[in-house]
Amino acid sequence: MTVQAADAQAFNWKKFQGTTLSILANNNPIANTLMKHRHEFEQLTGMKLKVDTYQEQQMRQRLMTVMNAGSDEIDVFMSLPSREGLQFAKAGWYADMSSYVKNDAAPGYDFAGLSPGLVKDATVDGKLNGIPLNIEGPVLYYRKDVFAKCKVAVPKSLDQLPGVAKQLKTCEPGMTPFVSRGLKPALPFTFSVFLHNEGGEYMKDGKSQLCSAPGKAALSLYSSLLKDYGPPGVVNYSFYQISSLYKDGRAAMAFESSNELRNMMAGGARLKDTAITLLPPGPGGLHPTVLGWTAAISSHSKKKEAAWYFIQWATSPKTQAELAVDGIVSPRASVADSPGFRKWVDAQPVRKEWIDAVNQVGKLGESKIGYPIVANAESREYIGQAVTAMILGQKTVQQACSDADAKLDKLIAGN
């Protein structure tokens, strides 16, 4: 008898049999991998899932429409606490799951086994607004075969990146030397590592710091790498385009989420020629970004208790172990240390480097993406505007940071 089957005898997984839950998901590896196992949930509980999947921006637009209308149309949605946590909490859109965790958890669920840091990120004013689904951060994927052919060393510091990209461009002119996010609302995820490695912060004493020396250095380096060594149309690039470009062998370096391993390696062409590391340190040291998506219950849902059953299934040790061998790093340390996961990791050298990099992200990383204010999402737009204006050659670094700081200072003052 399986553990989950044994649990089913002690815990009534069929309590809400016949219920249909509406799930709003981001079209990313987490949701896509989780939904491969949806039949297990439906069989276990007798419930049905209605899953609507959108690209990230469209998902949030759909959520905003439904939540602002006070509709009970959505029961569970994916959320990113580092981005919208304070905003959604202030709006009252999250249902507090604290009582469910204490009073209605299946045997063996082990809430305490989830990453304390990610649980803390999902908690506002003592209310548990989401349960972590994964742990991730940007890592540097690179073609070790191309580096060897071009006799180029992996950069050991940020200031070496442009020189390495230039050498790769000369050696392999048909290949994109470096790619990362250029889409305005998406790029702060990757840009933030450059800023913090340069020794910068977004905000100090209530004022925006993009025009500080480290801020200017980060803006200049990030934008010039994408302008001079990125692909055409990079200002439209998020993880979808980056993963495709790299998987198809058209990029030598890609700085993108650790979560994209599965997509990068799809088809197997990159399994043997890829290596993975962290972005090299800068004057400020090594400061990776770490975050985790959560599963949240809509405060307007009329099926909150049933929705909790879905969330505890999705974040249970058993389900998390199944996601892990598809490249989704679990927020549960027990899963990362399990024999099944270790066997999967040990089967390919690139997976060993990947999990080593993610472990470093987990140990060293912080969720400092954009400004620590309720209007975090809007702050990211202004960061994106500054970077893309420089990529397109529309503004100097002084013009870009000054314009952004002026808008951001007003935004900060209003929060």
TrEMBL record:
The keyword Magnesium does not apply. Belongs to the bacterial solute-binding protein 1 family. This is ABC transporter substrate-binding protein. It holds the Pfam family SBP_bac_1. It comes from the Bacteria. Transmembrane segments: none annotated. The lineage of its organism: Bacteria, Pseudomonadati, Pseudomonadota, Betaproteobacteria, Burkholderiales. It is found in: Periplasm. GO terms for cellular component: periplasmic space. Gene3D superfamilies: Periplasmic binding protein-like II. Its main location: periplasm. Keywords: Cell membrane, Lipoprotein, Membrane, Palmitate, Signal.
